[in-house]
Every structure is written in C-alpha cells, then in structure tokens.
Amino acid sequence: MRAVCVDVPGGPENLLLRTVPRPQLKDGEILINVHAAALNRADLLQRRGLYPPPPGESDIIGLEVAGTVHTLGPGVMSPWRPDDKVMALLSGGGYAEYVAVPEQLVMPVPSNLTLCQAAAIPEAWLTAFQLLDFIAQVKEGEVVLVHAGASGVGTAAVQLIRLFGAVPIVTAGSAEKLKLAEEMGAAAGFNYKKDDFVQGVRDFTQGKGANVILDCVGGSHWEKNVSSLAMDGRWVLYGTMGGRTVDGDLLGKLLSKRGHLLTSLLRSRSLQYKADLVKAFSRTVLPHFSAQPASLRPVIDSTFNLEDVAEAHRHMEANRNLGKIVINLNKQI
Ligand SMILES: NC(=O)c1ccc[n+]([C@@H]2O[C@H](COP(=O)([O-])OP(=O)(O)OC[C@H]3O[C@@H](n4cnc5c(N)ncnc54)[C@H](OP(=O)(O)O)[C@@H]3O)[C@@H](O)[C@H]2O)c1
C-alpha cells in the first residue's frame, strides 16, 4: 500500500510517499480502507521526531481517518461489514491506504457527511469532548475560554460548549479566525496578538472570570490565564504551542484563585479509556451531526492529495488553517 514515511526527522520535505506492506490485523482489529485522513498539530511534532508513537503502535503519522471497512480481524464482535463507511481514532498509521484499528475506536460516518468531512472528526472532536466533559466537567451556564478558537480542536470545542448549554468565548490571532469562531457559536472573541484578552474576559464576565479555560498555548499565556480564571475555575492545559516553561508567581496566583490546573493527553491513554470516550461521544454527540438541521459540523479548511502532504504540513505550520486540513486519497466508493 502507499503510505507517508519519515526516515529522517525534519521538515515537511522529509515526508516520503512509499510502498509499504499492509498492516497485519491483530485480535479485535478492523482493517480500514482509508479514503481520507486529517492533519493534527501532533503530526508536525512527530515528523520532527518530537512526539514518537506510543510503544507498539504504527510509526506512520496520522491520528484520524475515514474510509470503508475492508476486513474484520479475528475475534471482532461488532457487526461491521465490508464496505460500511466508518471513521476512527488512531494512535498512528493514518497517512496510508489501509490502517488497522481496534474495533472499539471505530465509529459510523454520520449519514449526511462525506468521508473527507468525517475524517476531520475523530481526533479533534474526541479531544474537545474529552477535555470539556471527562476532564473539566463543564456545566450549563458556565463560561469557557477557548484559545486557538479557529483550530481543529477549537472549532469543535466551541460547538460542543454550546451543545452543553455553556458559553464559549475565544482567542485567536486574526479577525478572520475570530469571525469563524463566532459563526460556530462563540459569544465573544479576542485577538490575542492585538488586544488584552484578560480585559476582554473581565468585561464579558462582569469581573467574574472564565469558569474553564481550554489552553493549548501554555507558557506565553500563563499569567493572563490565571488572571482570566474565575474563583475555583478549572484551567485545562492540553498543549504547549506558546512554550513549556514558566517564570513567575504561578503557584501564588493560582492559589489566590483556588484554581484547578488540569492536564490531559489523549494519544497515550489506554485502549479502555479511549473506548469509553468513543462510546460516550457516540451516544451523546454523534447524533447531532446528522440531525435535521445538523447542530454540529466539522469545519474543513482545505483538502490536499496524498502526494501533496508536505504542502499540507507547511500550511498548518504557518498557522494558515481555519478548521481542519484533510488529505484525500482519491478512492472511489
Ligand atoms: N492533549 C491532547 O490530547 C491533544 C489532542 C489534540 C490536539 N492537541 C493540541 O491542541 C492544539 C490544537 O491542535 P489542532 O490540531 O486543532 O491545531 P491547528 O488546527 O493547527 O491550530 C493551531 C492554531 O493555534 C494557534 N497558535 C499556534 N501557535 C500559537 C502560539 N504560540 N500562541 C497562541 N496561539 C498559537 C494558531 O492560530 P492563531 O492564528 O489563532 O494563533 C494555529 O493556527 C495543539 O496544541 C495540539 O497539540 C492536544
């Protein structure tokens, strides 16, 4: 099968399209014929050798795909049949024509979505759902500040916060990105490059602060995050795009807010945890993608062919995407 390989960690030019053997199915796995895969920020780190796959997982990049069921491995219990349209959360292996996935991480494609749209759901939406529901336990009426509001995870988070009856507010780096986040449901948006989002959050919440902050920025925002947090608020760190080190009175300021600092990573979680997450998401969120009218939608920025995967990585690395970047393998259904 064709797959994108990285022999030497480095820039996008090190992504090589090659022919490699198809994955062998283990007990309880399903082989998916991949029609589309989506990019995630973690893919850029993995390409540079900074985010290796968990032990035993494919070293091919790619955390989410959509396609059709090809073969069921030994011991598969779920009633999938060949050619069923599916999407899946992966620990790796997505940038390839076929991928083997534990059956618990396979979901049906919502009826009104294309496979390119569906590929943009698993990693981004399960991450947002996990952070909001399993980690922060967001409640109705709470104000949630989402950084990178036009990112793949951010556009999912804003829609989920509305679904949960809470109030999303965002930061982003351009007017265009803020506009997208507002179209997705954000009640307010702040350009962190130009404006003081602390003041924006204070004004919006009449001085109370945000109950929850979804933070994929880390270092450069830490002080503003503590200042923006409500008393007893939950600050959920899930990325460090703005640096990993902190210099200053973080603990004192957090303590004065009685703040909770929570962190999470999805990829390194156990299969059981991911299976529980997929089950909860499938029950409570997935139906909203195919409702009439649909109340949730994956936001697609652009679609690239597999041959142009390096260009897709450059696009993301330059922070140009609004929503998700999809790789189309151009297969007929
Ligand atoms: N913990 C987990 O399990 C998990 C899972 C999935 C994703 N993530 C994390 O979630 C984040 C979003 O991922 P994604 O794939 O959705 O990303 P994405 O679509 O590529 O969007 C990332 C956006 O973040 C903003 N950004 C980049 N550097 C920044 C900085 N230094 N300060 C502030 N904003 C910055 C940029 O938008 P602006 O133009 O608005 O600055 C950029 O377009 C990443 O940090 C990723 O690692 C974590």
Automatic annotation (TrEMBL):
Q: Which domain of life is it from?
A: Eukaryota
User: CDD domains given for it?
Assistant: p53_inducible_oxidoreductase (cd05276)
Coiled-coil annotated residue ranges, if any: none
SUPFAM superfamilies assigned to the protein according to its UniProt record, in alphabetical order = GroES-like, NAD(P)-binding Rossmann-fold domains
Q: A Pfam family in this protein? A: ADH_zinc_N
Q: Which UniProt keywords apply?
A: NADP, Oxidoreductase
Q: Which GO terms describe its molecular function?
A: NADPH binding; quinone binding; quinone reductase (NADPH) activity
Residues of the Enoyl reductase (ER) domain: 10-327
| InterPro entries linked to this entry | ADH-like_C, ADH-like_N, ER, GroES-like_sf, NAD(P)-bd_dom_sf, Quinone_OxRdtase_PIG3
What NCBIfam families does the database record attribute to this sequence? quinone_pig3
Protein name from the UniProt record: Tumor protein p53 inducible protein 3
